[in-house]
């Protein structure tokens, strides 16, 4: 854990595990007065005065050296296309420069956010009223809010809130996001961050509201024409973000670039993050090499019990995406009022210092950049790993991590330094991994996962209750949190209600029944719950279940690796008679798992970049032994006479001295592990 994260861990936090329903804050603040409680939302908004200044950075951005350099570059390219010389006194030069300056100004005003304090208060009242009718709760840890509030008191340049993409369509996903803004502004009395939004949301009416609440719009693609750099847009984007950081403003953006279509974490997009890193690196003192500026990174995870029916299932089936428009936004908002969406959970991770991260990674950066290999590949090969460790002992050059000399040189835009790319990519994956691990598993997630993984043909309620209970304990044992409490029967009933009859069928003695029959402890035992496996409903169920996959990623790698190492299709029921005869070694299983991890490294985020993959796989292998899915051989069968001789030789040479080349012809005996036939069903799951 970085030292900067230790700063925010103390007894007052660990002693506050309770969760607050933010929707009830207005009600609780007015509970002593019957008159005020009738207008609690209005009263709460009025009492929480918001007096924060948001700077006007128009002139600073447009007249910056970077922006002026971009204008000169663009003018030169335009004159070259026309075959004209670069003469500052010519009419053609003045004409093109005036056009470029006008375009630069237009790009800035399209991007720029215009904070409106009155609209903040109105939005706070509106969201408290509307979300209170649509959601059961918006859950936030008191301890996390306390940590976040204390982080704002630190004398630091800026704070970066990095959110994992949620499960709502783009035009509806901003509602919890806007509520997060008002949570900062009203509850914490902390300036609301500027929020990066795609230019597809800059639509009539809705875009103006987002802009007034701190949303600034950026292109999905920086260059309109392939192979032709838009110097003006790149300069405006870079200078805009850096100027906000210089003014001490906070930023919020989605590390995955947009909403997830599959429910699992996407490979992170590091474009905006690279601007922040570039800004911190630019503050390096030339005398002592110390970074003067800093920013706190706060990963944020948001969990939804029910997603709004968007077009992601259409896209999964190969249909074209419907572009956002004013009417599609109105329809999405109108659809919000037709049902209940359960609970929303917001989790703030521990803040950490970007300055500290960059300083610590300077020493290890050399080995990563020189190798040219992915982190998974390096960590998976002991010989390569040893050579990388030798390389890392070398002292890195003083300018190993320095800002590129280009006026707009940033990763994802125009970076020329491969080493900086490595650090930024690792930072992005680290943030996403923290956010993914902090995201709570909701009731609908665990039910969909259990049905699709174990009971595709349906399951009786008593068996499902037992399975969900065990699965919940497994998730908690893996240091992941769940976003529900209470008896498992009630949790299943609540999840079935939210999923609806389109996704899960509830029957009793072959006749369809309501989710309310699950509460019946006498007749409920005859209830059978079956998932809908037809398209496109199974895709939606898969979306819900994807949140739980991250808990079992490493164990799934090992299970597939055991199949590959044994050469037996263990997942096929026709190979049941061969199950007990399978024998594998830990070394070959881990080797296969490393290969698979490298193969799927863009689909799944298995570990944090700072951890060793081989070590984590080894620990997961030991957990399979502890759970008795894999049987370890007895001690007397493990060390035969040859192994004992080898061990004795190692001990003698450790005392009297030895050279590594003397042991090259000898090997470390590896245990043979067998699968537990009694747990073969659990292994296949």
UniProtKB/TrEMBL annotation:
<protein>
    <submittedName>
        <fullName>GPAM</fullName>
    </submittedName>
</protein>
<dbReference type="InterPro" id="IPR002123">
    <property type="entry name" value="Plipid/glycerol_acylTrfase"/>
</dbReference>
<dbReference type="Pfam" id="PF19277">
    <property type="entry name" value="GPAT_C"/>
</dbReference>
<dbReference type="GO" id="GO:0004366">
    <property type="term" value="F:glycerol-3-phosphate O-acyltransferase activity"/>
</dbReference>
<dbReference type="GO" id="GO:0008654">
    <property type="term" value="P:phospholipid biosynthetic process"/>
</dbReference>
<dbReference type="InterPro" id="IPR022284">
    <property type="entry name" value="GPAT/DHAPAT"/>
</dbReference>
<keyword id="KW-0012">Acyltransferase</keyword>
<comment type="similarity">
    <text>Belongs to the GPAT/DAPAT family.</text>
</comment>
<feature type="domain" description="Phospholipid/glycerol acyltransferase">
    <location>
        <begin position="177"/>
        <end position="305"/>
    </location>
</feature>
<keyword id="KW-0808">Transferase</keyword>
<dbReference type="GO" id="GO:0019432">
    <property type="term" value="P:triglyceride biosynthetic process"/>
</dbReference>
<dbReference type="GO" id="GO:0006631">
    <property type="term" value="P:fatty acid metabolic process"/>
</dbReference>
<dbReference type="InterPro" id="IPR045520">
    <property type="entry name" value="GPAT/DHAPAT_C"/>
</dbReference>
<dbReference type="GO" id="GO:0031966">
    <property type="term" value="C:mitochondrial membrane"/>
</dbReference>
<dbReference type="Pfam" id="PF01553">
    <property type="entry name" value="Acyltransferase"/>
</dbReference>
<dbReference type="InterPro" id="IPR041728">
    <property type="entry name" value="GPAT/DHAPAT_LPLAT"/>
</dbReference>
<dbReference type="GO" id="GO:0006072">
    <property type="term" value="P:glycerol-3-phosphate metabolic process"/>
</dbReference>
<keyword id="KW-0472">Membrane</keyword>
């Amino acid at each position: 854990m970085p030292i900067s994260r230790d700063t925010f861990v103390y007894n007052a936090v660990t002693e506050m595990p309770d969760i607050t329903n933010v929707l009830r804050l207005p009600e609780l603040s007015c509970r002593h007065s019957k008159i005020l409680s009738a207008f609690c939302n209005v009263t709460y908004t009025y009492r929480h005065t918001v007096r924060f200044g948001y700077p006007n950075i128009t002139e600073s951005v447009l007249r910056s050296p970077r922006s002026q350099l971009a204008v000169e570059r663009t003018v030169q390219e335009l004159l070259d296309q026309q075959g004209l010389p670069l003469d500052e006194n010519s009419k053609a030069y003045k004409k093109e420069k005036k056009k470029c300056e006008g375009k630069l100004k237009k790009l800035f005003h399209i991007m720029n956010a215009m904070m409106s304090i009155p609209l903040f208060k109105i939005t706070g009242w509106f969201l408290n009223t509307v979300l209170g009718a649509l959601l059961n709760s918006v859950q936030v840890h008191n301890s996390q809010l306390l940590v976040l509030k204390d982080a704002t008191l630190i004398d630091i340049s800026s704070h970066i809130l990095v959110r994992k993409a949620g499960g709502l369509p783009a035009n509806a996903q901003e509602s919890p996001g806007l509520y997060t803004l008002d949570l900062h502004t009203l509850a914490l009395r902390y300036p609301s961050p500027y929020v990066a939004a795609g230019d597809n949301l800059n639509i009539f009416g809705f875009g103006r509201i987002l802009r007034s609440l701190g949303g600034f719009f950026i292109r999905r693609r920086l260059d309109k024409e392939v192979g032709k750099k838009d110097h003006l847009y790149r300069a405006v984007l870079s200078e805009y973000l850096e100027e906000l950081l210089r003014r001490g403003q906070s930023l919020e953006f989605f590390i995955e670039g947009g909403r997830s279509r599959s429910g699992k974490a996407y490979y992170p997009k590091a474009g905006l993050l690279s601007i922040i890193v570039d800004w911190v690196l630019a503050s390096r003192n030339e005398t002592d090499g110390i970074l003067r500026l800093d920013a706190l990174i706060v990963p944020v995870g948001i969990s939804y019990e029910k997603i709004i029916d968007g077009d992601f299932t259409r896209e999964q089936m190969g249909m074209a995406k419907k572009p956002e428009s004013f009417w599609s936004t109105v329809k999405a908002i109108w659809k919000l009022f037709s049902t209940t969406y359960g609970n929303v959970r917001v989790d703030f991770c521990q803040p950490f210092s970007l300055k500290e991260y960059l300083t610590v990674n300077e020493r290890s950066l050399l080995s990563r950049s020189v190798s040219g290999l992915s982190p998974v590949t390096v960590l998976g090969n002991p010989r390569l790993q040893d050579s990388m460790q030798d390389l890392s002992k070398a002292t890195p050059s003083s300018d190993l991590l320095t800002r590129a000399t280009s006026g707009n040189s940033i990763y994802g835009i125009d970076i020329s330094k491969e080493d900086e790319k490595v650090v930024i990519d690792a930072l992005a994956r680290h943030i996403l991994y923290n956010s993914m691990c902090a995201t709570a598993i909701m009731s609908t997630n665990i039910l969909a996962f259990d049905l699709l993984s174990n009971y595709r043909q349906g399951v009786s309620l008593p068996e499902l209750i037992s399975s969900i209970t065990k699965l919940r304990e497994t998730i908690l044992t893996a240091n992941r949190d769940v976003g529900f409490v209470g008896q498992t029967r009630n949790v299943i009933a609540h999840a079935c209600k939210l999923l609806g009859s389109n996704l899960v069928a509830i029957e009793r003695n072959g006749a369809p029944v309501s989710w309310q029959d699950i509460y019946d402890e006498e007749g409920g035992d005859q209830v059978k719950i079956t998932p809908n496996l037809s398209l496109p409903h199974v895709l939606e169920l898969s979306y819900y279940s994807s949140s739980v996959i991250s808990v079992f990623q490493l164990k799934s790698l090992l299970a597939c690796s055991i199949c590959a190492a044994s050469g037996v299709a263990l997942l096929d029921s026709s190979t049941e008679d061969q199950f007990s005869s399978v024998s594998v070694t830990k070394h070959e299983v881990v080797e296969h798992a490393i290969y698979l991890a490298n193969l799927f490294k863009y689909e799944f985020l298995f570990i944090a970049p700072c951890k060793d993959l081989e070590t984590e796989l080894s620990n997961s292998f030991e957990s399979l032994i502890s759970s008795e899915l894999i049987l370890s051989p007895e001690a007397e069968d493990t060390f035969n006479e040859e192994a004992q001789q080898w061990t004795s030789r190692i001990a003698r040479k450790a005392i009297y001295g030895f050279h590594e080349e003397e042991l090259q012809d000898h090997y470390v005996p590896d245990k043979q592990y067998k699968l537990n036939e009694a747990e073969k069903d659990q292994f296949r799951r």
